[in-house]
Amino acid sequence: MEVLVEKLRSLDPSERLFATSRIRRKVCEADSPPSQALVDLGVIPILLSFISPDSPEDLQYEACWALGNIGSGSTAQTQALVDHGALGKLQALLASPSANLRGTALLGLANIAGDSPPLRDLVIASGAVPPVLALLGTDTSPAILHKCIWLLSNCCRGVPSVPWGVAADILPTLIKLLHSEDPELLSYAAWSVQFLAEAHLQNVIATGIVPRMIDLVSASPNFPLAVLRFLGIVFLDGTNQQTEMLLKSSLLTSLSHFLSSPKRPEITKETCWIISNINARDSNHIQQIIDAHIMEYITILYQNTSREIQTEIVWALSNAILCGSPAQVRFVVECGAFGPLCDVLGTENVQLLLFALRTLESVLQVG
């Protein structure tokens, strides 16, 4: 490794390119890349010095690629990139006429932003978001667009969430991408919206995005899971009026279909979580779930599904019993709720166990 580092310092351009390419290959290794050893040997500032308009494009490309992979390592390694000024160098490449350089710079920034919320915030503070939004509006290369939306998604995720001012700048582009026919762009856009909704739900709803999310659920059986997760957040944290609006749309029919004819386990689990959120509201909303035959569907589904989905079903049944009217409680029990509630009495999930016991007590009180 030391020999390669010496070659990086060579006055011979071919030696520098050879060493940079070899280092890039080493940090791209799937098993135990020597990233920390390279950081300790002082490789980062040398590679960053190669990212310059005066350097050949192939040398910049290899250096940027190597740095991006170092950035996918530990937080300390990613922080080392930032400490040596990588953000400014990578951001400058976003305006490069070379698609290869733009692409590797996007990957490097995405790796830094995806490491942790503090590093995400540094990427945003460096001014990386506006040029990425511009690329999403002007670049036609699918490869570049995919890297852009991955970086943007990493800028939207994490706790604490990004400030609303940042989210507000990003959302118009995400809303446009929710109409994309490119599955990858659509999926990342949906996840980005969902990330932002976790902290800024009412502001996100105010953009008018909900009808498009509802349409996506029924538009294709392969819709992104994030769409359903977003709608679940609306049911969980939205107002009663917003919940009512969702229930009066085509969404309830779609949810019913996902449970009566389950095909994608992740969609089934998410749907059961949504039903649990609806049932936790009031008897009016529970009645709409009952009228859609969903209580029957989930008790039937319970008999032949995974433990994860069974757990979500128990939460949904419990919420219906604890928040429903006496008549609704009797109906849910008649649908077969008693069996699933008793099944979880041996669970190691203390919270679920206590909830099930409370639910069974409520059933006995109703009679």
UniProtKB/TrEMBL annotation:
One of its GO terms (biological process) is protein transport. Coiled coil: none annotated. It comes from the Eukaryota. Keywords: Protein transport, Transport. ARM repeats lie at residues 169-197. Belongs to the importin alpha family. This is Importin subunit alpha.
